[in-house]
Amino acid sequence: MCPSPRSAVSAVSVFDPDLTDRPAVASQLDFADHAEEVPVHRHRKGQLILARRGAVTCTADNDIWIVPPNCAVWIPGGMPHSARATANARLSYLFVEPGAALLPDSCCTLSLSPLVREMVDRLAQEPADYPADSHAARLARVTLDELAGMPRERFNLPISSHPKIRAIADALTLDPADRSTLGDWAKRVAMSERSLARLMIRETGLTFGRWRQQLHLIVALRTLAAGTAVQNVAVELGYESVNAFIAMFKKALGSTPAQYFAQRRRG
After folding, report:
1. CB-facing half-sphere around the CA of 116: CA atoms within 13 A
2. Rounded to a whole number, what is the largest CA-CA distance in the chain?
3. For 42-71, b where at least 16 C-beta lie within 10 A, e where not — what string?
4. Rounded CA gap, 138 and 186, in Å?
5. Which string of DSSP letters, residue by residue, matches 7-40?
6. Are β-strands 71-75 and 108-111 bridged in parallel, bridged antiparallel, or unpaired?
7. Keywords of this protein's UniProt record, alphabetized (predicted)?
8. What is the chain's alpha carbon radius of gyration, rounded to the nearest angstrom?
């Protein structure tokens, strides 16, 4: 049986941004036409990944980054990274030549203004080798100036390269409804509960409880952006009730899931 286009074609093979030395180039991808998993790769250019619909999860620099609608993750040039998009994802990419903009030298999630989102989409209509004195070149410069002022959001989960923390992260990523206590996990990884608590803080900067809540938030944002009902997300994450899940979400992001995504749709 021939593989479907979505399982056969990786987004990495569609566009090579390093073939041009322009300060910024953009492209768009609809993941209905491409493989869900984008394998580990790197670019000379920095990369901004913007979710216009659906969501994408990136792994880079020992962190998992969620990109909900109308947010973006910034990945500096040369950093290995991989991605996994929801089936309904429509993404915009902005690739930035090193030194062309005052952007962070580490990964971060940015909340983008409607102006920046529209400029990135407009630049995606231009050829990658646009003339240096063209309208596209001026658009690229203004886009980079505006992008440098966008605020950061905390949509990342530190996962560490330590084998025991990584084992816990891998297990809970596969089964986020697992409600095992820190003591349960300590037995599984052959450590005392006290030692594991110290290791978790040292490696991730978070207590185990805060780390698991951040994992739930990232899974929730990704799953809700894919169109899953709030009730189903609450069950997937192991909450006893929908209200308990909504309370966690509101405490973390300041609004209920319905309010949050309505605000995102309005820009």
Report:
1. 23
2. 64
3. ebebbbbbbbbbbbbbbbbbbbbbbbbbbb
4. 56
5. HH--GGGT--GGG---SEEEEEEEGGGS-SEEEE
6. antiparallel
7. Activator, DNA-binding, Plasmid, Repressor, Transcription, Transcription regulation
8. 19
Q: Please tell me the CATH code under which domain 5-153 is placed.
A: 2.60.120.280
Is beta strand 152-153 parallel, antiparallel or unpaired with respect to 81-85? unpaired
Q: Cβ of 20: how many Cβ atoms within 10 Å?
A: 16
Could you give the 3-state DSSP secondary structure of residue 160? coil
Q: At what angle do helices 208-225 and 242-253 cross, to 10 degrees?
A: 100
Q: What is the pLDDT of residues 108-137, one digit of tens each?
A: 988 888 899 999 999 999 999 999 999 999
Residue extents of the structural domains in the chain: 5-153, 161-266
Confidence of residue 2 (pLDDT cuts 50, 70, 90): very low
pTM, rounded to two decimals: 0.79
The CATH number of the structural domain formed by 161-266 is 1.10.10.60
> Tell me: the pLDDT tens digits for 204-229?
999 999 999 999 998 898 889 888 99
The SS3 of residue 180 is coil
Long-range contacts of 243-247 (CB under 8 A, 24+ apart): 245/220
Q: Give the C-alpha separation, 48 to 127, whole Å.
A: 18
